[in-house]
Structures are given as structure tokens and as C-alpha cells.
Amino acid sequence: MSTPLSVDYGYLRQLVFGLSQNVLDPSRDYLFDTRLSKLLRNQGMTHLEELVQHLRLRKNPALERAVAEAMTINETSFFRDGRPFELLRLDLLPKLIEARRLSRTLRIWSAACSTGQEAYSMAMLFREHFPSLAGWNIRIEGTDISGEVVERAQAGSYHRIEMNRGLPARFVVNYFDHLGESWTVKQELRKMCNFRQANLCIPPLPFHERFDIIFLRNVMLYFSQDTRKALLANIHRLLAPDGVLFLGSSEQPADPSIWTPVLAGGTCHFRPNHPDGHRVGRVDFASAAK
Ligand SMILES: C[S@@+](CC[C@H](N)C(=O)[O-])C[C@H]1O[C@@H](n2cnc3c(N)ncnc32)[C@H](O)[C@@H]1O
């Protein structure tokens, strides 16, 4: 009788960390079995250790990336956590709109956008509550490390279960085209949004122009403290001096000296500090980890 193969989960954890900076706890090693089963099938393999040995022997960057992407947690929903969007509607956006009345431009970034619901929630918020901005240049960028979720965000098509999470009924009617079990975001909203694949932990970040609002929610919890610190310093450079950063409800900036937390509307957002008017330089991940 052949001995069952034991799996070198440590190798897989290290590989995921190297590519996405996501720290996976050994107590959750079982997730490799569930999340990589499709990839194994596609590779014609039956056991996870076969994959580990293949990766060890043959450097295969595409397959390594596929493993790292398959291990990301893509949980999201429309208007997730509600309060940031209410605060934007009632307070933050009216002020930003007044401040940008000459340039008539607003830039929003949903960093780690998963399947796009956060970006489309912003597009709906603009259309629903700020119709007078119809002639403005409003750009909503969404980025994620996973090509699969970025493709889904670009398609803007959602299943009934996703539609039932956080979306007011009138938004479903006004902003989606319905066919069978799938609801697709209307073209007028899709035009406001642009999605692309990008790893937040491999500088440079994919933008040069600054943003007025950045969402960086529910992704840093998978990163080490050093990675968080480096990422937030780079995000700081990409936020307008009067811009707003939202983190997930259980997340904090790793380096509080460059951010001012503001408690309002039952939630917390962050404003960038600019001591002496100087901008903070880009931090690279290797040096931040030293
Ligand atoms: C839990 S979802 C959060 C989605 C959305 N921000 C929200 O709060 O609803 C985390 C997302 O972060 C992405 N992610 C993980 N590591 C990343 C990295 N290094 N760079 C970019 N995106 C990453 C995952 O692919 C996943 O889609």
C-alpha cells in the first residue's frame, strides 16, 4: 500500500506571501485544499503535493501567480458597511464638490476592489444623489491582484445572491439590466469605472495623478505590519491634501504619524498629514521590512 503524500503547506504559504504579501495562518492550511482544487484539476493533478513538487522543480511564474490569486479572499458587497457611503453623501462629497468646482473633476480609487461592488456603489451614489455632476469628469478606478475578479468587475454582472446584499431595491431597478439570474450594471455607470489588475505590494502603484477618495478596505488585514506601513506611505502620496481615505472597520494605519483619524457619521476616515507642507516620499517594501 502506498503512503499518502503529505503536503508541504509551508512552501505554499511562503509562495503566497512572496507574491501577494498575504500572510496565511497555518491553522487555515485546509484552505489550500479547497481553493486550489480547481487549479489542480486544470493541471491534470490529483494531489496538492504534486503541485508543490511541480512548482519546486519547474519555476512557473504563471502557475505561481495562479496559486497566489486563488488564495485571496474576495468577500465584498454593494455599499459594504453602509456608513462610509452615507458620510460621503451627506458631508464629505458636498465639500469635495465645492472644492473641485473649477476643475469639475473627481477621482476615486477602490484599491483591492474584488468583483467591483465598491466602485459601482460610488457610481450609483453619484448618479442617485448628485445628478448635477453629470457634466463632470468623474473617474472611478478599481484595482485588484486577482485577474479573475478584475474580469468579473469589468463585466459588471452579478448573481441574485450578490444583488440581495446591500443594494436598495430602487437601485436594482434604476442601474441594472436584468436577464435571467444575472443583473448587469448599466452602461452609463460602467463608463465611469475602470478596472485593472495591480498588486498593491509591488511598487510603483499604477497611478501618478492623485485621488480625492481612496477606499483601501478589508485587504490590509492579510498583510504584515511592515507591508501595511509601506503601502500606506505610498497611498499617502496618491491622496490629495484634502482627500479622504477609508480603511476597513477593523483596520488602522500602521504609521499614525502621517494620518489624522476623523470620527464622523458613526465611522472613521483618515486625512493625510503634510508636515511643513512636505510630501512623504515613496517607501519601498524591501527597505520598510528592514
Ligand atoms: C476581502 S476583499 C475586499 C474587497 C473590498 N475592498 C471590500 O472591502 O469589500 C480583499 C481583496 O483584496 C485583494 N488583494 C489581496 N492581496 C492583494 C494585493 N497584494 N494587491 C491587490 N489586491 C489584493 C483580493 O484579491 C481581494 O479581492
Give your account of this protein's structure.
The protein is built from 13 helices and ten strands. By secondary structure, the protein is of the alpha/beta class. It folds into two domains: 9-70, no CATH class; 83-154 and 187-288, Rossmann fold (3-Layer(aba) Sandwich), CATH 3.40.50. The strands form three sheets. It has a five-stranded parallel β-sheet with strand order 6-2-1-7-8, sandwiched between helices. The chain has a three-stranded antiparallel β-sheet with strand order 3-5-4. Strand 9 (259-264) and strand 10 form a beta hairpin. Helix 1 crosses helix 5. It is globular. The site of S-adenosylmethionine has 24 residues, from loops.
Total beta strand runs: 10
* Alpha carbon gap, first and last residue: 49 Å
SSE pattern: HHHHHHEHEHEHHEEHEEHEEEH
CATH secondary-structure class of the largest domain: Alpha Beta
Bound molecules: S-adenosylmethionine
CATH homologous superfamily placement of the largest domain: Vaccinia Virus protein VP39
What is the CATH third-level topology name of the largest domain?
Answer: Rossmann fold
> Could you tell me the radius of gyration in angstroms?
21 Å
* Net shape: globular
What is the CATH architecture assignment of the largest domain? 3-Layer(aba) Sandwich
Question: Widest sheet: strand order?
Answer: 6-2-1-7-8
Helical segment count: 13
